[in-house]
Structure formats: C-alpha cells, structure tokens
Amino acid sequence: MGLTFLARWQPQLLSVLRIMAGLLFLEHGSVKLLHFPASMAMPPNGGMFQAIFLTAGVIELVGGALVTVGALTRIAAFIMSGEMAIAYFLVHMHAGVWPIVNGGESAILFCFVFLYLSAAGPGAWAISKDT
User: Which of 9, 17, 49, 100 has the fewest CB atoms within 10 Å, i.e. is most exposed?
Assistant: First the structure.
C-alpha cells in the first residue's frame, strides 16, 4: 500500500505548497518595501544595489501575492524562480560554494519550488487555472 493513498490529494497538496511558498515569498517583499513585519535596511549609496533591492522587493511582494491566490501562477513563479537563481549567485555564492555555509539554502529551495510551480501550475485551489 505505501503512501499511494496520498496520490488522490495531489492537486490539493500542490495548492498547499503554492500557498505556503507564496506567503513566505510575499513576506520577503513586505519586509523590503513595507518594513512589515520587520524592517530590512536598503543598501547604502543608491545606485545599482538599491535598484536591485527595490526590484526584488516588487517581484517578491507582487509575485508572492499572485502565487498565493493562484493568479498568473506559472509566469509569476517562473520570474520568481529566476530572481532566486540570480540572488543565489549575486548574494550567496561569494561566501562559498556550499549553501549551508553561504546561507543560500532558502534561495535554492525557493528557486526550485517556483520552477516546479511554473511547470505544474497552481493546483486545485486557485483563482485561475493558468493553462
């Protein structure tokens, strides 16, 4: 028998994964742009790093909200997957190759969860089916 009984719940569990990943990602954007529930300092001296920081915040806030409710899931997840790949190489990789050492585990996990959602779609509970 194994765990095959869970197979019938696959569409609903895909939605649970989507909702939780979306909410966690939305929180990253909320911290950057709205300073809620905590505050994250913007990089100093303006320029490219502030632009990247603000762009990432918008992608995280808007994309996280879209993925959470299941609207435009595939495209939003694809963009967020790319953002996390870029974040890993720009922010984490310089601190070492191993994610456990460079603090990049969440960036890698978000990257691949969102890549999966961009292929799998939103699951059973969504505003739109994104076919």
Answer: 100
What is the rounded distance in angstroms from the CA atom of residue 40 to the CA atom of residue 119?
Answer: 32
User: Is 19 within 8 Å of 128 (Cβ atoms)?
Assistant: no
Supply angle C-alpha 117, 119, 125, rounded to 5.
50
Task: Give per-residue pLDDT as tens, 69-97.
Answer: 999 999 999 999 999 999 999 999 999 98
CA-to-CA distance for 47 and 23, rounded, in angstroms? 29
| C-alpha R_g of the chain | 16
Secondary structure class of 39 (helix, strand, coil): coil
Residues in Cβ contact with 69 at an 8 Å cutoff, skipping those fewer than 6 apart: 22, 126, 127
Q: Would you state the structure tokens that stand for residue 83, as one six-digit string?
A: 């953002």
- AA identity, residue 119: A
Quick check: 74 and 121 in contact, CB under 8 A? yes
- Kindly report whether the global pTM for this prediction surpasses the value 0.85: yes
Region at 11 (left for phi over 0; alpha for psi -120 to 50; beta for the rest): alpha
Closest CA to 77 of 123, 116, 47, 45: 116
